[in-house]
Amino acid sequence: MLRKRIIFTLIYNNESFNQSRNFRLQKVGDLRWLEKNYKFQDIAFSLDELIVLNASKDEKDIEKFAKTLERLVDDVFIPIAAGGGIKTLDDAKLLFDNGADKLVINSILYEDTTLVKELVKIYGSQSLVANIDYKKVNGENKIFIHDGTYEIEHEFNSYIKYVESLEIGEIYLNSIEKDGTGFGYDLDTISKLKDIKVPIILAGGAGNEKHLEEGLNLENVSAVATANLFNFVGNGLPNARMNLLNKDINIARWIKC
């Protein structure tokens, strides 16, 4: 049985890192602040992967984002997925050249399937993560693109099946309503997804170790992600991983665990 994973997500906005709540961003600090407060060389032993998302609300400067990514990977020795604003093959190559191991794609899943298919052909399915942002509207889950600002006309379950048909390696399923609340994942939605063969990364709402455990215990979830900079600062992540290991959760035991 494949090991499940714990992923940390960093939200980037114009050269700073941010706390997000329902996709409203609050600046926390730059890369130096991040290095000082998180010491990624140490906490990397508590993680299986890092995701870095360019959520800049104005025009996304992918070259500046790539430079920040390049500096970040100097201290991180775990796989890194990066995305946000990828519109061309050159954008994809730039992120790979600056340290990304995988690409995270969102809006182009809906708007440019030709580009998505080219990325799959060039880099392989295992190198692509589909980011699907959703929230409930009148009691139904609706898909949003462009940083959660534009609702697309597509039924929720059929859209996930459509993304699966694009031969993407993983799906990063992110609840806008739960995002940054620390109240826990949208377990109801994920538990109702059936017959999905693509691995699911559950995101949006994790605020403590209990939430990570709840997500990891779901059969159709291969990884859980948190972007909560404050709840997991200091020893939060190392302690959470150790406690999950002690509960026989199916995650890898690294050297420092």
Keywords for this entry:
TIM Barrel; eight-stranded parallel beta barrel; alpha/beta
Largest sheet: 8 strands, parallel, barrel
Mean pLDDT across all residues, rounded?
A: 92
Strand order of the biggest β-sheet: 1-4-5-6-7-10-11-12
Order of helices and strands: EEEHHEHEHEHHEEEHEHEHEH
Which CATH-level-2 architecture?
A: Alpha-Beta Barrel
* CATH superfamily heading: Aldolase class I
- The SS-based structural class is alpha/beta
CATH class: Alpha Beta
What would you report as the Rg, rounded to the nearest angstrom? Answer: 17 Å
CATH topology: TIM Barrel
Write structural notes for this entry.
The chain is built from ten helices and twelve strands. The protein has helices spanning 31-38, 40-43, 62-73, 89-97, 107-111, 113-123, 156-165, 187-192, 209-216, 236-246; strands at 5-13, 16-21, 24-29, 49-54, 80-83, 102-105, 128-137, 140-145, 150-155, 170-175, 200-203, 223-226. Strands 1-4-5-6-7-10-11-12 form an eight-stranded parallel barrel, surrounded by five helices. Helix 9 (209-216) links the parallel strand 11 (200-203) and strand 12. It is globular. The mean pLDDT is 92.
Quick recap:
With 257 residues, the protein is of the alpha/beta class. Helices cover 33% and strands 28% of the residues. It has one domain: Alpha-Beta Barrel (TIM Barrel).
